[in-house]
Amino acid sequence: MLELIDIKVRLQSKAGTVNILRGASVAASPGESVAVTGRSGSGKTTLLMVAAGLLRPDSGRVLAQGLDLTRMTEDELAGFRRRRVGVVFQSFHLLPNMTALENAALPLEFAGREDALEAAASALDRLGLGTRLDHYPAELSGGEQQRAAIARAFAATPSIILADEPTGNLDSATGEDVARTLFSLCTEKNTCLILVTHDAALAARCDRRVVLADGMVVETA
Amino acid sequence: MTPDAKPNDQAGPADRAGRAGPFDPTDPAGRLPAKFTAARLAARLAWREMRGGLSGFGVFITCLALGVAATAAVLGLSRSVMDGLAAEAKTILGADLEVGLSSRPAEPALIALLASKGTLSQSVEARVMAVAALAPPRAMDRSPGQNPAKTRASLAALAAVDAAYPLYGEVRLSPAMPLGQALGLEDGQYGAVAEQSLLDRLGLRLGETVRIGEASFRLRAAIASEPARTSGLFSFGPRLLIGLPAFESTGLTAPGSLARYVYRVRLAGAQPSGAGAAGQTGPMDRIGQAGQAGQIGELKEELRRRFADQGALVRDATEAAPGLATLLGRLTNFLSLAGLSAMLTGGLGAALAVRAHLRGRADSIAALKCLGAPGRVVFLTYFFQIGAMALAATLIGTALGATAPYALAGLLGEALPAKPIPGLFPGPLALAAALGLLTAVTFCLWPLGQIRSVPGLALFRDQVEPPRGTPSAPVLAVLGVCAAALACACLAVAGNWKIGLGFLGAAAVASAVFGLISRGVVTLARRLPPPKNPAWRHAVSGLHRPGNATAQVVFALGLGLTSLATTALLQAQFENRLGDQIPQAAPSYFFLDIRKDQLGAFNALAASVPEITRVETAPMLRGRITRINQTPAEDAPVDPDAAWALRSDRGLTFSGPMPPGTVLTAGAWWPADYHGPPLVSVSEDIAKGLGIGPGDSISVNILGRAVVLKVANLRAVKWLSLDINYVLVLSPGVLENAPYSYLATAYFTAGPERPAAEEKLFAAVTENMPGVTAIPVGEQLDRVLAIGGTIATAAKAASLLSLIAGTLTLAQAFRAGMREKIYESVIFKVCGATRRDIVRIMLPEYLLLGLTAGTGALLLGTAAAWLFTDSFLEGGFTLLPLPAALAVATGAGLTTAFGLLGVRRALGKAAWTYLRNE
After folding, report:
1. Of B287, B294, B277, B296, which Cα lies nearest the Cα of B86?
2. Where are the domains positioned within chain A?
3. pTM over 0.90, yes/no
4. How far is CA B708 from the centre of its chain?
């Protein structure tokens, strides 16, 4: 389903070259959830960006449903994300000048769906935001914003969800609510989930756990 | 410049606690007073922040420097041109004093008085027909473009001069020879010299003969330069000089002739022209000038006392070129307005730059407040930063503007009768600098005053809000004072309070219109049902989303574009009216100096040309308005727009019945068989300018006889119809026995046969009536169009300044929103948008913004052009599609181009760097 093989990422900085990922490999099957944990700076988020096709690795391969992402053009990668990937961020990354409905409808609009707004409204409604469709992100609570972001990620029924600390900015009760929503949707839609988190309890809810340290996978469980 | 320092809920903890902080004036340690300490600390903080770089101030500095440079350049250049004209005034006038009379020579006593004061030069000037007196040229001799079928006659500005001419400067001839020799009698024939353009028109070469009236002259040289000739701008033809003794033989001295007799005096002991030019005077020069001015004043007074009844027009060097001075004054006014327009548009750009700067510093401001900095210190910190940048921009602009007179003096010297005298003019430079600083303060004080709205508590939230809200009352008060001072500076720069107030009013209207348009567009976009196409849906919602740039872009581009649209539309109206509408309805020729005994023959000639649809004739002679009621004309308070009616002799006519087509606006026409005290009908525009109406009286000197005329009525006159129109139409019984001549106009059918028919009448008149002057209307309109075209080019170049300022402001508006656009495109990418998708979404938004700004500019430009057409071109406004489309297309093109640049930059950013958790 999704396989990251021997991924290496180097970044140039003023201080010199920094090896962010040094041959990390992670795989996930359809419907499987994989937690990626590790200390800050271990390369978790970078690994997620590589999986989303937002960052091209210096070496290694990213295979997703038979496609090699490292050989794709920018537009092909965009098409891949549009059809098969949803991303949930710790900071939500909702566009502040668009309503919850407009944010959730974006992937559907890019997919050319004529019913984009209706489908997004339905998705938000399912997540309890039916009365908040026309609200801007600043008018929503943190939990509501993250649910809107989840609605956006699931809007195009992707086969892969990449979540980067989805509860990191939320209190424990709200975080629990969001986590429950995320997992139930993944189960319901048989979606592969790769979840980056520091939260051991959240990681424990995943089918498997991968620990990163210094850009390498040091433990799997 | 002290902001509100009142403790409030946004003040730092130290303030709120009320304890003695480092700014406490009651500090027992006796440190510096609070205000001074605060200012010093703020200066230190400002310096620390500025060390980080000034990259965000590029647009700010450019916008202000551009406005200051433009204003300083216009004011300095105008001053150097005027100084040049003043220095050469005697040469331009050709004398220290000039006395001119229409249609008759001066009395011997007057001539004797003038001769007793120094050197006297006499001349006679007239518009005449110069005719090539030779067989038609062979094809091989013909000059390019010369029509062999055309009569080789041309309108010329004739001057018959004496041996003393010119009193200042010299007439340079080609080939070089003394003027007296060129004009003298040789082999039984007098000589003439002419400008090369006249020789070209007539197809004549030196040595050949030109006929003027009833006499023939040998062309002995071409005029290379002539000092008293200001320029061809106000003349009806190229210059032609003959000797005064030969003038009699032309037959142009017949009674009623429109010749002007001119007497020029060079006072005994007068300095040469150009001596003591502005900025180059020594003490002895100044004493000499003062003494001479006194002599001239005494002579003028004596002329007024002894010869007031002569009706002579007396001018000294200070009035050497009133028409040129007026034109240059108007041009300066216009260019000053263009500079002001660029300044105010640039001010908007500066304000946007400051807003963006403060927005980027919102977290620093919040941090300073958290650390206990009072609002005053925070305000002063950023005020000092922005003040330093404004000062730098002003200095750059002033320095650039100061070089303009030096850079352009040579170029302008070619087109003007006197070389401009470049210099560093402290007054204009200080005014431009003051304007720049006031613009900076006025436009930037509002966003600066909003700093207090950034709460220190914001740091504890996820996101620090950008400054917003209304500044405190003291800041608003200072803002009001600065705005008033800025308005005063604008009035000073405009140089004319009426024009200045008009400009400020127009700026206020333009701001209001663009404010309404942007609000209207936002409201409309919000209320419209969302388009089905996602790209257009995003474009429309982008216009009204929170943080939209609609108002900024529409204002920035709209204001800049309005100047360009207005100029383009004005030029189009001018060309359409003068190049198309007027020629269709106007006569083809004006014929002057038709003697009473020639009128029958003239009418017979006209009747022989079947294509002539109408011939109008009217008696004409010249007279000068000398008094308005009891006030001498030179002392009367007169509107500058009507001053031309008093500046020289006016054409007069008389009529018993009311002429057909006359529209009376006040009073009543006299009976057709009226016999009574002299009455006059005055054109409404001039009467208004002179401040007279029915019942008032004016004195007119006609051929040395003063006639008091009672105003009977006012007429609406459409001068641009080019029908026979007079400022003054007299009642019967005044002029019938005077030696008047006739003025005639000839109208032709429209059609392909018209040029040949016009030529036929022209040839017949010039051949058979040597003293009659034919003025081809088309040629004169072409000259006016050409002059208008030159002015329009200057105007367009000047209005480009506003567009540049507007474009810079637009760039700033886009730059301010760039961070959001990049973030937006990153999220679009995450959601699966391709580059093309992102371009497709963002471009329509820019296109809509540009179209909105362009349409606004078009509306304002059209309104301005309509007002202009109505006021100055007597109506006939037509909406011309090309310039209109140009305005809209420029708006759309510029925003789309900037948008594309922004999108390109956004697409070039790696998404992942924006998505990492902070």
Report:
1. B277
2. 2-220
3. no
4. 38
